Automatic annotation (TrEMBL):
Cofactors named for this entry: FAD
Organism: bacterium symbiont of Plakortis simplex pPS11G3
EC number: 1.4.3.3
GO MF, one example: D-amino-acid oxidase activity
Domain FAD dependent oxidoreductase: 96-368
Catalyses which reaction(s): a D-alpha-amino acid + O2 + H2O = a 2-oxocarboxylate + H2O2 + NH4(+)
One GO location term (cellular component): cytoplasm
Family: Belongs to the DAMOX/DASOX family.
Entries under SUPFAM superfamilies matching the protein: Nucleotide-binding domain
Name this protein carries in UniProt: D-amino-acid oxidase
A Pfam family: DAO
Enzyme class: oxidoreductase
A biological-process GO annotation: D-amino acid catabolic process
Keywords associated with the record: FAD, Flavoprotein, Oxidoreductase
């Protein structure tokens, strides 16, 4: 089974532009003495995709909203809206959201927009959530679903959620949420081709064409990278620390309440004063609700000292690291973020030295070979 999507290189090409102009690009200084931290996060992956449905737990209604893989930052506004619309069928207008990562926070905000009083119950809050450990951009198919387990009903639910989120994120650009547009380059020695997906010859692509920005194919001599080809695209970047703190602030400003609490059994949820509960526990749903399909996908990021002059991202340009994911770089205000790991079934939160060395040295080779 193969993962649908892994960042910039996952989307099929939508359209080619003939514009070959490109601003001068400053190389990243990926020196070891510029490394300031390495972080690890466990993406909550379900091979058959996220869960978004309502169940009963005695007298309590539980709406499940979890299992977003590496796409939580991208699609959570949409799944949150769909969950909130399910909640409107309940008589009560007091809701409990379990989890304070991006999925829980955006769901809570969607509930507030529909008149609910919301309490978030969570074991951790930003900046200590899994969401804080993400690279973060609009990559809505990243590590989300195994292609041969897709269904037409799930695809429709995903596409609706992705469209909602794409519109919502655009509205946050330039408003202090850490959301912005960034030029990115997918690097390869193999010539990119116009859209075709041999993996799914008889299926509609998972991501609708209107949610993909156009691309510019740059050949040898038309870009500064050491690879033969570079495909340029403008994509949304999300800075997790800024974004999540802004969502917490909005939630509290609109009357929300956060309670630090850990749940170990479903009956503890049924004992809450709220009879409407939205489960946004991510990987925690494996133990809390016995969803054994949930598995961790370990992702590791190494962060360099910020370089304000670096205003572009990259994907690829070296052999894949663990999990078959290409290396990638994204600049943020808190540092230059280097990534490239996706280890299925790995529960360790300890940084892997070998993976870090591969990611850093691969980026050193890439950027030291850039042409001025």
């Amino acid at each position: 089974m193969s993962l649908i999507g892994s960042g910039l290189g996952a989307c099929s090409v939508r359209s080619w532009s003939m514009d070959r102009s490109s601003p001068a690009l400053a190389p990243v200084r990926a020196d070891w003495d510029r490394v300031i931290r390495t972080t690890v996060g466990l993406r909550p992956h379900r091979p058959s995709g996220f869960v978004l449905r309502a169940d009963r737990l005695g007298e309590t209604t539980v709406i499940h909203n979890y299992g977003h893989g590496g796409a939580g930052m991208s699609i959570s506004w949409g799944t949150g809206q769909l969950a909130a619309e399910m909640a409107l069928e309940h008589d009560s207008r007091a809701a409990a959201v379990i989890g304070c990562g991006v999925v829980g926070l955006t769901c809570a905000r969607q509930l507030q927009r529909r008149g609910f009083g919301v309490t978030i119950y969570a074991m951790t809050v930003p900046p200590n959530t899994t969401s804080n450990m993400s690279l973060a951009g609009f990559t809505p198919t990243s590590g989300l679903v195994d292609g041969d387990l897709r269904t037409s009903a799930w695809d429709a639910q995903f596409r609706e959620a992705a469209e909602i989120s794409y519109r919502q994120l655009q509205l946050l650009v330039g408003r202090g949420y850490g959301v912005s547009w960034l030029r990115s380059y997918a690097l390869s020695d193999r010539e990119p081709r116009a859209r075709q997906d041999s993996r799914e010859p008889e299926r509609t692509p998972l991501l609708p064409a209107q949610l993909r920005t156009g691309t510019t194919r740059l050949g040898p001599g038309e870009h500064p990278f050491p690879t033969r080809y570079a495909t340029r695209r403008t994509q949304m970047r999300i800075e997790p620390t800024i974004y999540l703190e802004a969502l917490v602030r909005d939630f509290v400003d609109f009357g929300g309440r956060i309670v630090i609490r850990k749940f170990t059994e479903p009956r503890e949820l049924a004992a809450l004063e709220e009879s409407l509960v939205i489960n946004c526990t991510g990987l925690g749903a494996r133990d809390l609700f016995g969803d054994t399909e949930l598995m961790p996908v370990k992702g590791q990021l190494t962060v360099l000292v910020p370089q304000p002059e670096v205003e572009y991202g990259t994907f690829g340009g070296a052999r894949p690291s663990r999990g078959g994911l290409g290396i990638h770089m994204q600049p943020r205000s808190d540092g230059i973020v280097l990534g490239g790991t996706a280890e299925r079934g790995e529960w360790s939160l300890e940084p892997d030295r070998e993976a870090m060395e591969h990611i850093v040295t691969a980026h050193q080779a890439l950027f030291s070979a850039m042409r001025g």
